[in-house]
Design goal:
By secondary structure, this protein is α+β, with helices and mostly antiparallel strands. 17% of the residues lie in helices and 25% in strands. It has ten helices and 19 strands. The strands form five sheets. Strands 7, 8, 9, 10 and 11 form a five-stranded antiparallel sheet that branches. A four-stranded antiparallel sheet has the order 2-5-1-6. Strands 12, 15, 16 and 19 form a four-stranded mixed sheet that branches. Helix 2 runs antiparallel to helix 4.
Length: 486
C-alpha cells in the first residue's frame, strides 16, 4: 500500500516543518474548466507533478553542517473534490471510479443541518502546502493560475504556532492520534474496513477542511476564566478540568469516559474515549490572521483533518460535537451542542467547508495514481461491508449511536452462515468475517440494535462484486432515546 504523501510527518521532517514556527500553510483551491475530458485531466495532472516536485525539492546539502541531505522546505497533500469525480451525479471522466464517500451511497457530512448553510469551498482540487519557503510557494501558485485548465483559484493562508496555542490562548493538539496508530485511522486499507473503496484508492486519505473564525471579543466577554475553561474543558496549560491537581499529562489521560467534565465542553464532545476510541481523526489545522476589506482583523483556524473514511469526521463532528443529545446524561435530558461550536453562543463561525480525497503515492506520478486502475484478480468469493445509520424522518438534526449493531448473513435457503456474525464500530461500519461465494443470493439480518425502538432490518442482496457494500438506514419509531448511557 503506497500511502498518500504530504499528510504524516516522516523522520526528521517533523521538526523541519510540522513543529517549526517558521512554517506557513497554504490552502490553494482550483476549479477546472467544465469541458475538461479524461485525456485533458490526465495531461493536466502530468504537468502538475513536476511543479509539485519543484516545490518540495530539498535545498542543496550544506556540507559545512555535515548534512546527509538538504533541508526539507515543503510538503504537499493534493486533494481531489467530489466535483473532480462527478458532474451532475454522473462520472466526470470515463472509467474513473469515484472514492466511495463521494459515490452517493450516503450523504456527505456537509449535508447535516449544522453545515448545510455553510458555503462550500467549491474547488475541484485543493493543495494543502506546508512550507518555510514562501518564494517557492508563490512560484507554484503563479504556475497553477497560468494553466489554461484552471478556471478559478482561491487561496487561504495559515501559520504554525510558536507556543502551540490556538487563538483563544489554549494549548492545542494535545490528544492527536499517536504516531503508532495513525496509519490505521488515516489511510484507506482495502484489506481492512475500507474494502469497498476502488482499487486505485488504496493507501489514499480523505481530507476535511473548514475555515473557522474565532470571535475573541465574544470569548473574552464570558464571565471569568472558569467559564472560558468550561467551554474548552481544559485549563490554558492543557490540564483537563476533571484532572486538575493530579499531574496527568494529556497523552497519559485515562481512557475512561471523563464523566467529570461539563457535557458541552469541547474536550468532552470530541474525545468521548472509552469504547468510542475506535473513531479518531488526524488533525493538521493551522490558525489564520487576516484583514477584511472593512479594515477588521479576523482570527481563527484553518481546520484540516485526514481520515480513512469521511464517516470518521461525520461521527466526530455531527454525531458528537453538534448533536444536542450527546453525551447521554445519566438523569436524561439533552446536554446541548459543543460549547465552542454552538451557533447560539457565537464564539465561532464556520465560513467554508470542503471534502477531498488525497490519492495514494505512485512513483509514476499523480496522473498514474488516479487514472491507472490496478487490475484485480478474479475471485470465487467476495467480502461484505455494511454502513449502518439511524435517522429520524421528522428531525434530521437528531443523531444516533452507530456502534453495536449486530448482523449475520443468511444463505439462499435462509440458513445462517457459520461465522458470519459481526458488529459495527462507532462509524457504523462492520465487515462480515467470512467471504461469501460470488453470484449467490443472501440476506443480511440485523440481530441487535443499541437504539431503542429501532426496527431490526433484513436486506436481500446478491454477491455481484468482489467487494460489496450495503447501506442500511433505519428510521426510528417514537418515542426514542438517541443514545444509550454507557
Amino acid at each position: 500500500m503506497a500511502q498518500a504523501k504530504g499528510i504524516l510527518p516522516r523522520g526528521d521532517d517533523r521538526e523541519v516543518l510540522y513543529k517549526n514556527p517558521r512554517t506557513c500553510g497554504y490552502f490553494i483551491g482550483l476549479t477546472l474548466t467544465p469541458g475538461l475530458d479524461r485525456a485533458g485531466a490526465e495531461a493536466w495532472l502530468a504537468r502538475v507533478g513536476p511543479l509539485v516536485d519543484q516545490l518540495v525539492m530539498r535545498l542543496p546539502r550544506r556540507w559545512w553542517r555535515r548534512e546527509k541531505k538538504g533541508e526539507k522546505v515543503a510538503a504537499v497533500a493534493i486533494g481531489l473534490g467530489p466535483s473532480f469525480f462527478l458532474a451532475n451525479g454522473a462520472p466526470r471522466f470515463a472509467g474513473l471510479e469515484s472514492p466511495v464517500c463521494f459515490a452517493g451511497g450516503g450523504p456527505l457530512p456537509s449535508a447535516s443541518p449544522s453545515l448545510a448553510n455553510v458555503p462550500a469551498l467549491g474547488a475541484d482540487v485543493l493543495f494543502y502546502v506546508a512550507s518555510v519557503f514562501e518564494a517557492r510557494v508563490n512560484a507554484f501558485v503563479s504556475a497553477l493560475e497560468a494553466m489554461p485548465e484552471v478556471e478559478r483559484l482561491t487561496l487561504e493562508r495559515g501559520y504554525q504556532r510558536e507556543d502551540e496555542t490556538e487563538p483563544f490562548g489554549y494549548a492545542d493538539g494535545l490528544r492527536n492520534i499517536r504516531s503508532s496508530e495513525r496509519t490505521r485511522f488515516v489511510f484507506v486499507d482495502r484489506d481492512g474496513l475500507e474494502l469497498d473503496e476502488p482499487a486505485w484508492a488504496d493507501g489514499g486519505s480523505y481530507m476535511a477542511y473548514m475555515k473557522i473564525r474565532q470571535r475573541l471579543d465574544q470569548f473574552a466577554a464570558l464571565p471569568d476564566d472558569a467559564a472560558r475553561d468550561a467551554v474548552i474543558g481544559r485549563l490554558k496549560d492543557g490540564t483537563r478540568l476533571d484532572l486538575v491537581g493530579q499531574n496527568v499529562k494529556p497523552r497519559d489521560e485515562p481512557a475512561d469516559v471523563p464523566a467529570g467534565l461539563p457535557p458541552t465542553a469541547h474536550v468532552r464532545k470530541v474525545g468521548p474515549r472509552g469504547e468510542h476510541d475506535d473513531t479518531q481523526i488526524f488533525r493538521r489545522g493551522l490558525p489564520f490572521l487576516e484583514a477584511t476589506p472593512e479594515g477588521e482583523l479576523h482570527v481563527g483556524l484553518n481546520f484540516c483533518s485526514f481520515q480513512a473514511s469521511l464517516d470518521q469526521f461525520d461521527v466526530v463532528f455531527n454525531d458528537w460535537m453538534m448533536s444536542r443529545n450527546f453525551p447521554p446524561q445519566p438523569g436524561g435530558g439533552d446536554p446541548g451542542a459543543d460549547a465552542l461550536m454552538d451557533p447560539a453562543r457565537n464564539l465561532t463561525t464556520i465560513e467554508r467547508v470542503g471534502f477531498f480525497f488525497v490519492p495514494p503515492h505512485n512513483e509514476r506520478g499523480l496522473a498514474a495514481a488516479v487514472f491507472s486502475a490496478r487490475q484485480e484478480r478474479k475471485r470465487r468469493t467476495g467480502r461484505l461491508v455494511v454502513h449502518k445509520r439511524v435517522v429520524d424522518a421528522t428531525d434530521p438534526s437528531r443523531r444516533f449511536e452507530r456502534r453495536g449493531f449486530v448482523f449475520d448473513v443468511l444463505d439462499g435457503q435462509g440458513q445462517p452462515i457459520a461465522g458470519s456474525q459481526f458488529t459495527t464500530d462507532s462509524t457504523g461500519r462492520g465487515v462480515c468475517p467470512v467471504e461469501l461465494p460470488m453470484d449467490q443470493p443472501y440476506t443480511l439480518r440485523e440481530l441487535q440494535s443499541p437504539v431503542p425502538n429501532d426496527p431490526l432490518e433484513q436486506t436481500s442482496f446478491t454477491m455481484d462484486k468482489h467487494n460489496k457494500q450495503l447501506h442500511v438506514v433505519n428510521t426510528v419509531s417514537q418515542p426514542n432515546n438517541p443514545y444509550v448511557a454507557g
